[in-house]
Amino acid sequence: MGKSLTVITGASSGIGAATARAFSGSGHPLLLLARRMERMRQLELPNAMCRAVDVTDRSAVMAAVKEAEDAYGPADVLVNNAGVMLNNPAAAQDPDEWDRMIDINIRGLLNGVHAVLPGMTERQHGTIVNVSSIAGRTSFPGSAVYSATKHAVHAASEAIRAEVAPSSVRVIVISPGFVDTELSSHITDPDVRANYQAAEAALEGGLSATTVADAILYAYRQPHNVCIREIALAATGQAV
To answer: What distance lies between CA 20 and its chain's CA centroid?
Structure first.
């Protein structure tokens, strides 16, 4: 019997790309969603449907999931990884950046859930992995809105988990600290970006994206009657 369909958002780089490699290596067909099509194609993974989809476009997410399910069978795994971090002190930040983080980190995540959860509950089988952050467990200066969006990921995940537990659907939260990805390059304020990247450099970049992907695959591989509700992981040298 073949492995089940895995849907991964934000799959063009970082944790998303590493997770795609990990699940592909385990034999899963993939639906990879991101805005950068060429980056997904460059992964050159077998049985991987790549679609240039913005997760804030609910209808596009749902259409892509339906197309992949028609080709590979029902989605049994969703890794909600797409996210953006635009750290800046609240008094100085352009509210458009607040909107972008809220749209991608919260609405985009919920769009993914909406696309797969009804089928999972009907089949009474499935796993949703929501990628949050250490910033979803505590807040830091300059990260008011980013932390708020990641706290929202935790809150939504806990509520959805309780709702779908009777249907044997698992909801898992992955909360990394500093990870060696391009996430910090999104920060628009040069001073804030430089300070954040200096903290990353002090930890030699922090965790590798592959380490986080391995944690996601580990949690998924547990017997289906075991739900690892959260994995919080960070470089040993990261103090907070």
So the answer is: 11
Roughly how many angstroms between the first and final C-alpha of the chain, as a whole number?
Answer: 44
The pLDDT tens digits of the residues spanning 151-170 come to 999 999 999 999 999 999 99
User: Are the beta carbons of 74 and 4 closer than 8 angstroms?
Assistant: yes
Q: Is the pLDDT of residue 80 over 80?
A: yes
DSSP 78-141: EEE---------TTTS-HHHHHHHIIIIIIIHHHHHHHHHHHHHHHT-EEEEEE--GGGTS--T
CB 6 within 8 A of CB 79: yes
- Name the pTM for this structure: 0.95
Tell me how crowded residue 91 is: count the other CB atoms within 10 A of its CB: 6
Burial of 92 (0-12, 13-18, 19+ CB in 10 A): exposed
Question: Which residues face 50 on adjacent strands?
Answer: 32
- Take residue 165 and report the two structure tokens written for it: 């537990």
Closest to 100 measured CA to CA, from 137, 145, 63: 145
Active-site positions read 146
* Dihedral (Cα; 61, 49, 53, 122), 10-degree rounding: 10
CA angle 22, 128, 11 (to 5 degrees): 45
* Residue 82 token pair: 């797409």
94's CB contacts (< 8 A; 6+ apart) are 88, 188
Closest listed residue to residue 212, CA positions, set 116, 83, 81: 81
What are the tens digits of pLDDT across the range 33-69?
Answer: 999 999 999 999 999 999 999 999 999 999 999 999 9
